[in-house]
Design a protein that fits this description.
Layout (H helix, E strand, L loop, with lengths): L1 E3 L4 E3 L11 E4 L2 E6 L2 E4 L2 H11 L18 H14 L10 H7 L3 E3 L6 E3 L1 H7 L2 H4 L1
Antiparallel strand pairs: 1-2, 3-4, 4-5, 6-7
């Protein structure tokens, strides 16, 4: 284990064969290789990488559930609180599904390419009858 003196973070060594070919760390900035050449990873790329690296299954997508299975009053109340805490008043009038997509709670199921609810959103905003 090495210590990054500049940022004082511990960096764990990884076996060379476990390092993805399309990603590396340079000056504390992630970059990846797309089919057209090297480019810096966007913030959403980094979020996707971090979320997909998690062992937590709360972001797994669910079949046979829809926005109709969510308590939309609770979701709207959360959006109001979120807008106040983050000084983003436009969030209140934002489309509910788009808000959930933007925050990783509705995700693309890689098996069929469709947006689906995650376990996390059902736990946060699901109607009582679905998790009781």
């Amino acid at each position: 284990m090495q210590k990054n003196v500049e940022n004082e973070h511990e960096v764990h060594k990884c076996a060379k064969k476990k390092i993805p070919n399309d990603m590396w760390l340079t000056n504390s900035i992630f970059a990846n290789t797309s089919g057209e050449g090297d480019r810096r990873a966007s913030e959403s790329d980094l979020k996707a990488i971090i979320q997909s690296a998690s062992l937590d299954d709360s972001y797994d997508t669910l079949d046979n559930f829809s926005m109709a299975d969510l308590n939309l009053i609770d979701l709207q109340n959360y959006k109001v609180l979120y807008s106040q805490v983050n000084d983003e008043p436009e969030v209140i009038s934002a489309d509910n599904e788009q808000f959930l997509i933007d925050h990783g709670l509705v995700r693309i199921d890689r098996r069929d390419g469709k947006y689906k609810l995650s376990k996390a959103v059902l736990l946060l905003f699901g109607k009582y009858k679905f998790y009781s």
